[in-house]
Structures are given as structure tokens and as C-alpha cells.
Sequence to fold (160 residues):
Amino acid sequence: MTISKGDRIPSTTFTKMTENGPEPVSSDDFFGGKTVAIFSVPGAFTPTCSAKHLPGFIEKADALKAKGVDEIACTAVNDAFVMGAWGKSTGADEKVTMLADGNGDFAKAVGLTMDGSKFGLGTRGQRFSMIVKDGVVEDLNVEEPGDFKVSSAEYMLEKL
Fold:
């Protein structure tokens, strides 16, 4: 079942690359007590994700925070090494927290997976964005396959 507005984020574990290597991040801890803008991309270093999606959130980070967002996070079904390298290569480090969903546990738990087998990607997370307040989904924007409209930083800013 797909997560909906008003639902609590399910308990899962992400992995974040740190200076000490990969470290687990509990979704309960990450989303608890703050407002988080999180967006999911099908894959790090992929064309739309690298050219538009992540850069938009990096560019609009200050504007999102001015509207009450405490933290901005990007997730993808990639390992922490790939997410860490992607974050460094794009300059996301200080603005966007890169959360690896290596086994797709978060994407599955929120019911937002996609089949990327046609492109050699296997099961991935769909392209979407959410505003989560203290662990509860306040806003959810899921893209149609192949689209990039409603999950962008610009669209999120318009809705805040």
C-alpha cells in the first residue's frame, strides 16, 4: 500500500556516508521532532537526477529552510558509497543529506517502488517528494513515470 498524506513514516534504516564510513540512520530518529523535505530519485548519477532534481534542491535549500524546513534529504536505492560520492560531486554536502536506501527497504515500506529492469536498474524508488513533520507525511508528490514536475524543489516551494 502506498503511503498517503497523514500517514506516519514507517520504521526503516537508511545508511549515510560519514567521515567514519557508512553509518545507519533510523527513520524514526531522522524524521522525529522536525520538518523534513525528502525527495527520492531512481538513481544517483542518472541524467534527470543529476542535471535537475538534486541541483534544484541544492539551489533552493535556503528558500526551503526559510519556509520552515529543518532538513532536506535525498534518497535513492543506491549504496552509501555511491550516495556519498554523488553528494560530494554535486556540492550537496552542506545542504542536502544523502540517505542511501541500498536494499530499497524505505521505497518498499512507503509503497513507492518502480521496475527499472528495462534500464538495468532493477527495483528502484520512484521519483517523489514529501514534507514530513515529526514523522507524519504532510505533503506527498509522486511523479508519473518519466516525468519531472511535482517532485521538484520549485514545486515544493510553491506548496509551502
Observations:
- Residues 41 and 155 are 16 Å apart (CA to CA).
- The chain has a mean pLDDT of 93.
- The longest strand covers residues 136-142.
- The first helix runs from residue 27 to 31.
